[in-house]
Amino acid sequence: MVNVIIEVSKYLMILLIAVYTYLNFSYFRFHEERKQRRVCRRQNTAMFVLHFLANLILYLKSGDERVVLFYLAQVIFLAAYIGLYQLFYRNLTRILVNNMCMLLCVSWIILTRLSFDKAVRQFIIVAIAALVTWIIPFIMDRVWQLSRIPWVYGLLGLALLVVVWMVGNNSYGAQLSIGVGSFSLQPSEFVKISFVFFVATMFYRSTDFLTVAVTTAVAAAHVLILVLSKDLGSALIFFITYVGMLFVATSNWLYLLTGILSGCGASVLAYTMFAHVRTRVAAFRNPWADIDNRGYQITQSLFAIGTGGWFGMGLYQGMPYKIPVVEKDFVFAAISEELGGIFALCVLLICLGCFLQFVMVAVRMQASFYKLIAFGLGIEYLTQVFLTVGGVIKFIPSTGVTLPLVSYGGSSILSTFILFGVIQGLYILKKNDEEDYEEDEA
Fold first, then answer.
1. Phi/psi of residue 175, nearest 5 degrees
2. Is 80 exceeded by the pLDDT of residue 440?
3. Residue 210: predicted pLDDT
4. Is the per-residue pLDDT at 120 higher than 60?
5. 71-85, 102-116, 401-415: which has the minimum mean pLDDT?
6. Which of 122, 173, 214, 417 could form a disulfide bond with 129, CB atoms 3.0-4.6 angstroms apart?
């Protein structure tokens, strides 16, 4: 009987996330708030049922009573987060809150299967991040001085990256984090936010050649320090984000072409300078040639995805633990193996839905400062998702970046909560302005 419940639940979970994903995109068809709220309520129903079924399987397969208590804690958090956000921020974009919660559910499900202790730590970090970032929309709506301090963003970000370069902890050939007692902090995750604010502030002031040159120099310094720290995944995210923001701010195709060519040249240079880059490229080109060494991680990832197929092996039925660092860089492979290719594809589409919401916020903003912030953060988010999933499926060489809100990691979780909080704040700011305008017209 238990096996029947587990097998039926597996297919129901795929159906539920497919329904959720369909609702995620159908939301954009409606302009009336009443219909949008109805879509969001249906999403919440699908999410909570899926969450229950997954935890039921986790409990039946593990027999660990802690799973039940952990599940109840998650339900309380999700209900409180969704409810209180709506209570305190009347004009929020509910679809973005729902997507955050859905991605967190997927994270807790797969991490509980991989390591219960890490899942609990992730949950604690999420709760702290939610509490800390709760005030961000309030700040975005009231602190207009955010556009007046470009060099605070720029110099602070550079200082943090220099500290990591000088005294950072080495992880898989790159200096990524700073140890603080028993905790480690990855500053580049937060500098991504300050970097976007710096570029947006500079281009808000002017887009003349001198300003572009100065901003490019500071942006290049960010990328160079990351390259010296061998954190090439983050360096690529910074570079793509800057080129995209520069083009949006200036509409200059020459800048875009120059940026693309510079990126290609820098990639060749990085390949010749760093041995671990050559190793990753070799593993990407032919991982089967050295399957027991440099090609081991990517081949195990491909085995996992192929074994899972469209419908997955089922929770606790696969062997995702054979993939090194599976809970971080390669969590997408674990999802594909046990929950299925359809489930994993829906997770990817939910991430795409988040990006579309970022772009819609950017398009609606009239002030170029806010427009550039929304667009820049959107590019960062989409680039990180692309680099993570692309490396897992062998579409591009592995870059060592995490899947936002899904992969294990405290710095990534907190920085992503900040990113979503800023976008939420911009949306609320725009809605409040529209309401004030309608009241003045009346």
1. -90, 110
2. no
3. 92
4. yes
5. 401-415
6. 417
Contact 99, 82 (CB under 8 A): no
Distance between CA atoms of residues 401 and 420, nearest Å: 18
Place of tokens 């935890």: 55
CA distance linking residue 58 with residue 84, whole number of Å: 29
Beta bridge partners of 180: 183
Residue 346 is encoded by which pair of tokens?
């829906």
Contact 69, 118 (CB under 8 A): no
Q: If you ran DSSP here, which 8-state letter would residue 259 be given?
A: H
Find the radius of gyration of the CA atoms of the chain: 22
Q: What pLDDT was estimated at residue 418?
A: 94
CA distance 273 to 18: 44
* Per-chain mean pLDDT for the chain: 87
pTM to 2 decimals?
0.92
Phi, psi torsion values for 313, nearest 5 degrees: -80, -20
Which has the closest alpha carbon to 267: 281, 286, 282, 284? 281
Structure tokens at 17: 């996330």
Average pLDDT over residues 181-185: 69
Residue 93: CA count within 13 A, CB half-sphere: 28
Which tokens hold the place of 322?
Answer: 């054979």
> For residue 179, what is the DSSP state?
E
pLDDT at position 349, please?
A: 95
* Residue 388 pLDDT class (50, 70, 90 cuts): very high
- Higher pLDDT: 328 or 14? It is 14
In the sheet that holds 174-180, the strands lie side by side as 169-171, 174-180, 183-185
Using CA atoms, how far apart are residues 96 and 361, in angstroms rounded to an integer? 11
The Cα–Cα gap between 379 and 13 comes to 30
| Structure letter (DSSP) for residue 102 | H
Helix (H) or strand (E) holding 366: none
Give the residue, 104 or 163, on which the prediction is more confident: 104
Residue 404 token pair: 């936002």
Side-chain half-sphere of 216: how many Cα atoms within 13 Å?
A: 17
Tokens in use for 54?
Answer: 């997954």
Question: Which of 114, 24, 87, 132 lies closest to 339 in space, CA to CA?
Answer: 114
Q: Identify the DSSP state of 168.
A: P
Q: What is the pLDDT of residue 176?
A: 67
